[in-house]
Hints:
The chain has helices at residues 26-40, 57-72, 87-100, 106-115, 132-144, 146-155, 179-194, 209-218, 236-248, 256-266, 270-283, 291-309, 312-318, 321-330, 341-346, 350-365, 383-399, and strands at residues 45-50, 74-80, 120-125, 128-130, 164-170, 201-207, 227-230, 253-254, 288-289, 338-340, 369-371, 377-380. The protein is α/β, with parallel strands linked by helices. The strands form 4 sheets. It has a 5-stranded parallel sheet with strand order 2-5-6-1-7, sandwiched between helices. The chain has a 3-stranded antiparallel sheet with strand order 10-12-11. A two-stranded antiparallel ribbon has the order 3-4. It folds into 3 domains: 1-8 and 234-309, Helicase, Ruva Protein, domain 3 (Orthogonal Bundle); 25-230, P-loop containing nucleotide triphosphate hydrolases (Rossmann fold, 3-Layer(aba) Sandwich), CATH 3.40.50; 311-400, Arc Repressor Mutant, subunit A. Helix content is 54%, strand content 14%. It is globular, with a radius of gyration of 24 Å. The chain is built from 17 helices and 12 strands. The mean pLDDT is 90. A hairpin with a 5-residue loop joins strand 11 and strand 12 (377-380).
Amino acid sequence: MNAIPKGISPFYPGQPIPVELFVGRQKEIEKIARAVKQVELGKPQAIFLAGEYGIGKSSLASFMRFYAEKENHLLGIHVFLWSTTTIDEVAAKTVETVLKAPAYEPTLTEKVRNILSKYVGEQELFGIRINLNALKADTPNIAQGYLPFLRQLLERLTDEDIKGIMLILDEINGITSTPKFAHFIKGLVDENALSANPLPLMLLLCGVEERRREMIKHHQPVERIFDIVEINPMTEQEMKEFFKQAFLSQNIKIKDDALSLLCKYSAGFPKIMHIVGDTVFWKDRDGIIDKEDALDGIFDAAEDIGRKFVDQQVLKALRSKDYHSIMEKMSKLPFDLSFQKTDLGKGLSESEKKKIDNFLQRMKKLKVLSSGDIQGEYIFNSRLVRLYILLNSIKKATHD
């Protein structure tokens, strides 16, 4: 049978979820929305949006930026710091983001670019021309006067009815290892709070909890400045709503048993949901997702997860013949990030039991596992690796 023509895939494996496909997260949205409203009324707020890798922090932050611009008249600035390691680089990326990211209102985008026209000119970047020489020359001053830079930007937007700024600092893994960053963030919050006329600023940092603790280690007072909003895995109902809505947008139906499989092995993680959903979308040939489509897509998604998110050295170790049987037993444990060595040992043969200590130590050296707070407890550092082990085991059992 010939495959039906395919439109645009409704899944976004490597990107934040588009606003129109965003579902769930009602409690988190309400908490951030309350803070955004306070900023609209003139009161600065600071939130740390915490959650595991792949849980959807960037997508929620992007949605809240859209919400804050549309509902609360804030200028949203969503800065992805990625490999940034210095405060000067933070300042430069902030300016680049303001210039290249379109606002909810097109006229606002044009006005912002006119205000920062000094930095528009020499080099093409994301559809606009950035004068990198001018930006590089001014970066140290912007870094030193980060709050005045934001204040001056807002003051020049008063005729646009902009009430404040929502500044999102995302992908902070690299910069939090720099002690100066913790001092920079605390200084930004304190300088604003102690000023005669505080800037209405919604400061939102996105990261795993370890990054917040790293900042506190570098500068203890950071502990007091953030309200914490933690993102947990999506509920089964939220996952079902998402998959149904996504497939329906391309006139594709999904059967209940297939939907249950996608939800089970996505484990509530949006990144995994998009990887699995996109793979299944391209597997389908008749406009109806059935159990076979779902299983084929899930197995292919496991390989995709391995290639994209599991280090090659780890993959080599996980595929080692000596560890296969232990991993197959591990896959039968409850799908949690933590497990007890004694629970894993119960299902092992005498030969496997002799290898378990070496296996666990190897996984720790590869940073797949870390020791828990309880003796004999081990914790997966990434749920994606945990899922990869599970799916690989299921695939092997299915094809044997």
